[in-house]
Amino acid sequence: MKLLAAFSSALALATAASIATPPRPAKKSYDGYKVFRVAVGPETNRINALVEKYDLKTWKGAPRAGAYADIVVPPAQASAFRADVADLEVITMHQDLGAAIADESSFSVYAAGSANATWFNSYHAYSDHLQFLRDLQSSFPSQSEIVTAGNSLNGNPITAIHFWGSAGKGVKPAIVLHGTVHAREWISTMVVEYLGYNLLTNYATSAEIKSFVDKYDFYIFPVVNPDGFLYTQSSDRLWRKNRQSTSGSTCIGHDINRNWPYQWSVTGGASTNPCAEDFKGKAQSDAPETTALAAWLKTTKANQGLKLFIDYHSYSQLFMTPYGYSCTTVSAKNTELQALAKGAVAAIKATHGLTYQYGPICSTIYKATGSSVDYVNDVVGSDYTFTTELRDTGNNGFVLPANQIVPTGEETYAAFRYLLLNMT
Ligand code: 0X9
Ligand code: ZN
Fold first, then answer.
1. Catalytic residue numbers, as ranges
2. Is 373's C-beta closer than 6 angstroms to any atom of ligand 1?
3. For the segment 294-336, what is each residue's pLDDT rounded down to a tens digit?
4. Is the pTM of this model over 0.85?
5. Residue 424 in 3-state DSSP?
6. Ligand nearest to the CA of 373
7. What backbone phi and psi angles, to 5 degrees, belong to 187?
């Protein structure tokens, strides 16, 4: 009886504690939001002024001449904004962004222990991604392990599946794939997993895949920004950065892909404003994720060599090479890198007919300082370094329907296979 009384008062306490916890902020609604793609000619200043006037978010950096600006517009501003750009070429990418997000977010239930190809039919909750990796690992216990590159700011392990072939663990040069440094780029999570899954599950039956896995050690990191990814699932689907605060600002988040400690001080390729989507941080490598990943890459390179590093992003369909920090400095291996990139995009086209552009980051997309690729290429020293912007160039952008996961995985594997066959 006494025990029961103690138990029920403990229960009452626990209940009181949970009532005292402030409610989570509701998930941001994008119901009725529009996404407009505006062709920007000489009107850069005008479009930027509109973005400022209506306090809008853009998806692919600030509007600039000669490029399309993909602009997210809340329902209340939609007709005024549309009238302001009536003289320009405008496509409505999303008529109702909230509806597209709801569609994409109908995750199928993942039953632990069932790592099979149906995984790629939908997007998934972060905890299920970790379970999927554990399950995949336990299907191949003698040739794989789960590794972590350290912890995120909020203490989430930055997790990878590591697998190897007949030579055993840690002997062959490493191939390292990163996904989801930008939290909202969900297709990159799925595609990086697809590449790992394809190699592991076909090792026993495909002589070609066996030859790849016998030649290299693979480290597959589907989510290198777990705090940001969790935030896209709990609070705001369109979150990009990590979840770090900055003294003197109420804005949250450092862009991990502007924070790597190489050519970080070069101006013009990142923002010094903590509220910006491409905030570089207050100091190079002040994001714990950057520090952890950089140290892990250096150690891995020292232990076994680093053959290939690819950082997967979305969207725009680009296959890119160093550098981001300069449009004039070219990589020492530029000729070979461009030849490989050209072959990779041809392999993509041969899969489902999609066109990807290729070239150095700075001249292909825009100047970006402190990005992973420049650091890995020049400081860690990877034999080959690339970064990809996955699908699409159509209306979906970051909110790519789940029925495109498998085809995107297939074409991305074709590009990856091309590299594996042709790197010297
Ligand atoms: O701004 C970026 O970091 C990349 N574009 S994104 O829309 N995915 O954010 C472009 C920079 C090029 N670098 C890499 N893709 N790593
Ligand atoms: Zn990105």
1. 389
2. yes
3. 999 999 999 999 999 999 999 999 999 999 999 999 999 999 9
4. yes
5. coil
6. 1
7. -65, -30
